[in-house]
Amino acid sequence: MIKKNYHTHCSYCGHAKGDVEDYVKEAIDKGFEVLGMSDHIPYPENDWGDRMDYYFKDEYLEKVRECREKYKDRIDVKMAFEAEYVPKYRDYYKELKEKEQLDYLILGQHFFFMDDGSLVNCFATVTDTEQYIRYAEACVEGMNTGIYAYLAHPDLIFRNRLAPDKNTEKAIDILLDAAVKNDYILEINANGFRRGIREFPEGKRYPYPVDTFWDRVKGTNLRAIIGSDCHDPSFLADECVEIAERFALEKGLRLIDTI
Predict the structure, then answer these.
(1) 43-47, 206-210, 234-238: least confidently modelled range
(2) Which of 173, 225, 238, 253 has the lowest CB atom count within 10 Å?
(3) Is 51 helix (H, G, I), strand (E, B) or coil?
């Protein structure tokens, strides 16, 4: 069983249960060596939903620091955020990392912008596979900054019920070409397994991780890391994390547990 998790949320984001200390205690109880708290980053001027209010940023960081000190003899608590790459906030990401001395940022592209400026939410407003390509390009822009430690749920966009086509393949090509170029770590996200098997045009499968994506990863020798992406302390080391580990082993992926 994996004893390190870098992808952890808490109640500050508004759609998770438990405070920072609840997750730290659960990690200690499960024998974890490292717990990275990485709640959804707040933006100073925008609220794109399902994330921490900017008002709570300092409070969240202070809670993580308190737990890191309080439990330092029992577990290594990391302080981080999961963040999209939005070009106008590039300086904000860098300044936040430096000023607050964050241990890392995770690149998690939950939304992106089309060329006309319209916002596309990966969970709600994907209507065409051409948007898959723009999603991939947005992820690549984030990868190329060097700001982030790894790419969370790189196949998140394929959770939408659109039949796979040439745009699907092109999006995967774009993602993997950039990942190889940057020697980028890709995350196998256990939260996709928690969503259960669903019906898609190509048959029944989990929303993500997606076989067609990870079968391609296997041939690249890219590193993969499992992220619980837990939004409840009880999910930190649940059976879906075990499923993710089996998935990685069955695919023959180059699995790592440390960033």
Answers:
(1) 43-47
(2) 173
(3) coil
User: How many domains would you assign to the chain?
Assistant: 1
Q: State how far the Cα of 227 lies from the Cα of 186, in Å rounded to an integer.
A: 10
| Angstrom distance (rounded) from CA 37 to CA 25 | 13
CA distance 5 to 229: 9
Q: How confident is the model at residue 44, as a pLDDT?
A: 92
Q: Which residue is it, tokens 């709570």?
A: 56
Assign residue 142 the CATH number of its domain.
3.20.20.140
Residue 151 forms beta bridges with which residues? 107, 186
Residues 6+ apart with CB under 8 A from 178: 139, 140, 143, 144, 184
Q: Give residue 33's identity as a one-letter amino acid code.
A: E
Query: Binning pLDDT at 50, 70 and 90, where does residue 48 land?
Result: confident
Q: Token pair of 69, please?
A: 């000190």
Domain that holds residue 108: 4-256
pTM above 0.70, yes or no: yes
| 174 band by pLDDT with thresholds 50, 70 and 90 | very high
Q: Where are the beta strands (DSSP E) in 137-189?
A: 150-151, 186-189
